[in-house]
Amino acid sequence: MDAHDTEVMPSTLIAPEANGDGHVASVHNLYKSFGSFQVMNGLSLDFKPRAITTILGPSGTGKSVLLKHMVGLLEPDSGTVNVFGQDIWGIAERERAQLRKRFGVLFQDGALFGSMNVYDNVAFPLRKHTDKSESEIREIVTYRLKEVGLEAAEKKAPNEISGGMKKRAGFARALVMNPEIVLFDEPDSGLDPVRTSLLNDVILKIHEEDRGTYVVVTHDIRTAKKVSDYVGLIWQGRVVYYGPAEEAFSSSDPFVRQFLAGDSVGPLGMD
Ligand SMILES: Nc1ncnc2c1ncn2[C@@H]1O[C@H](COP(=O)(O)OP(=O)(O)OP(=O)(O)O)[C@@H](O)[C@H]1O
């Protein structure tokens, strides 16, 4: 068990070790291709500690691929990924695995195990990665389920709960290891506007308590407007705009204006 595992509640969140430049996570000049298809094309971005950064961009532009690089699931062809002051591809896989435990990831569909009920899904990382007792695990899981409003659903199977509940269960599971960085891959996909808004409220409330570094990939402008401290716009594997949210939403930058307006005319093409 590492030091991180010994700390549980948000009030005891460990201060993230920043990179030398004060950022807890940054990617620099990232290039990645799959076969002849160049997905990352010199992408650089610094993520502000304890802030919510939203990554916007057209479909297929490399947003999920960026998240996978950050958590060390994809290795760049060139460029660097720094988290917690370490170049994650300059260390051994064993050390990378340790770093991964300091991330929480909410996948698009919640990625719940169909054979386990909600409680066991949320308890899974604690049982796998820590030597906590079942009573300690119950305390943490109950706390997190309550936080996302699912305490009454703990015995339900994933196929017995709604899409919004699955996302919230996935969020609770992403939080149980008390992560310093939480990555959200389209938390709002497949949700109606009201459920999207409710999920965003939960994200904001928990961020307010935990003060983790959150990175949210979304297509939904309302989500971006509601939760972002900073906004990055990605196109063709590069950052074409980055700035504080209040500036982004009033920006005259042609990429941002086109994306926010959903306009077919502008610098963002179909490719
Ligand atoms: N493991 C892989 N092998 C081959 N191609 C891949 C792989 N992962 C991603 N790609 C391709 O890289 C491109 C970018 O994918 P990515 O999932 O990052 O897009 P995205 O911006 O998240 O899109 P969306 O908003 O539609 O989810 C896509 O064309 C995708 O097909």
UniProtKB/TrEMBL annotation:
<dbReference type="InterPro" id="IPR017871">
    <property type="entry name" value="ABC_transporter-like_CS"/>
</dbReference>
<keyword id="KW-0813">Transport</keyword>
<dbReference type="InterPro" id="IPR027417">
    <property type="entry name" value="P-loop_NTPase"/>
</dbReference>
<dbReference type="InterPro" id="IPR003593">
    <property type="entry name" value="AAA+_ATPase"/>
</dbReference>
<keyword id="KW-0547">Nucleotide-binding</keyword>
<keyword id="KW-0067">ATP-binding</keyword>
<dbReference type="InterPro" id="IPR003439">
    <property type="entry name" value="ABC_transporter-like_ATP-bd"/>
</dbReference>
<dbReference type="Pfam" id="PF00005">
    <property type="entry name" value="ABC_tran"/>
</dbReference>
<feature type="domain" description="ABC transporter">
    <location>
        <begin position="25"/>
        <end position="261"/>
    </location>
</feature>
<dbReference type="GO" id="GO:0005524">
    <property type="term" value="F:ATP binding"/>
</dbReference>
<protein>
    <submittedName>
        <fullName>ABC transporter ATP-binding protein</fullName>
    </submittedName>
</protein>
